[in-house]
Design a protein that fits this description.
Helix content: over 70%
Number of domains: 1
Number of helices: 8
């Protein structure tokens, strides 16, 4: 069966969403990224050792990623009602991303099987080539005013302004500096670009082999 027009448009999108979901998942679980942002000033501010801060961070990630962890309880950081509500909303987004990751990974497997059956690797080559150009352009555009887009992201995905933490009521914000979110942003798109490059090389090789 020939590849339909809608599939030509859908396949690159499936590849990109799959890669983005995996990049987010890997970044979330790359604990060394958070460790990189801990410095002497931060430990002095919260009165904790690096090890203790990391322990609380692990507890936070367990709450955000594991569906069966219902209560947000950190050893050394209390939460206000609004702070707790925001973290619950973040948990919903993390779980949504994991669901997308699973669903789109399956779609990717089906898509590659269909492309191989029809020997239509050229479709993926074209789509991946476009993505390799478009993604860096988008990232460059976002980095021109990262603070603005960071705020817009929160306004888009959250129903309230609970994400604006008061350090007195929600001291966890003292160990989650802007630099940490910037590093995560960079990590996500670097991983996505690596994924797209590897996919392009593999698909191009397949296309050349089956000519």
């Amino acid at each position: 069966m020939a590849i339909k027009t809608w599939e030509k448009l859908l396949y690159p999108l499936v590849i990109c969403i799959t890669g983005l979901s995996w990049a987010i998942f890997i970044t979330i679980n790359s604990f060394f990224l958070f460790r990189m942002t801990i410095n002497a000033q931060m430990t002095k501010l919260v009165g904790m050792t690096t090890a203790k801060i990391m322990k609380n961070y692990y507890q936070l990630i367990m709450y955000l990623e594991f569906p069966w962890v219902k209560d947000l309880k950190l050893s050394d950081f209390p939460f206000s009602i609004h702070g707790y509500e925001h973290m619950h909303e973040v948990k919903d987004l993390f779980l949504l991303n994991f669901g997308i990751l699973v669903a789109f990974t399956i779609l990717c497997i089906i898509m590659y099987s269909r492309v191989r059956k029809n020997n239509s690797w050229w479709i993926l080559v074209m789509g991946l080539r476009n993505m390799l150009i478009i993604i860096p352009m988008i990232v460059f555009f976002l980095t021109l005013n990262f603070d603005y887009w960071f705020v817009m992201f929160h306004k888009l995905f959250f129903r309230n302004n609970y994400w604006i933490f008061d350090p007195v009521k929600d001291p966890i914000i003292n160990v989650l500096p802007d630099s940490f979110f910037t590093i995560c942003f960079i990590s996500i798109f670097v991983l996505l670009e690596i994924y797209l490059i590897i996919s392009f090389i593999i698909v191009k090789r397949k296309m050349n082999q089956e000519k």
